[in-house]
Amino acid sequence: MILTLSAVALFGLLTFLLLRGRSVGPLAALAVFLFGFFTADTGAADAIRAVLSALANAADNLS
Asked: pTM for this one?
């Protein structure tokens, strides 16, 4: 749960900074947000969570 909240905070901050720096426009940010929102509602969500969990575990074991 902490990893999920951290990822949400990280990507939210990154989106905010990109929008503020005008590196990406509001429509592009909305498109990416909606893509993520609808992807989370598909069967791909479990596979994506599994990959992210495996990457987090691998990063934990690096040190």
From this structure: 0.56
